[in-house]
Amino acid sequence: MDLHEETFGKVNDTAPAGKANGDNKPIWPWFILIPSILLLVSTGPGVVMLPIMPLFLAGMSTDSGQAPAYMPMLIILIGYGLLAGFSILLYKAVKALVRGKQ
Hints:
By secondary structure, the protein is mostly helical. The chain is built from 5 helices and no strands. It has helices at 3-8, 11-14, 28-43, 53-61, 71-101. Helix 3 crosses helix 5. The longest helix is centred in the last third of the chain and has 31 residues, at 71-101.
């Protein structure tokens, strides 16, 4: 018995229950996918509006006379930034689930 086995024990004895068989299934993608699916089902055909929503909101913000001049650009940048970030996160979640099943 060498020093490593004396100190840490056998590798198979100290492995967590699910990891010993190579069962590596991530759970974080479900925290992205479940709300996405619920949002998609609840909005129905209104999901087509998502890509143009920042433009629509920016256009509506110019109708009020009290909005600053930079407000439409700020709405567009934040809106498309959130859409891009969520799309990337959704892509990575699906990719992680597919990779976890293989």
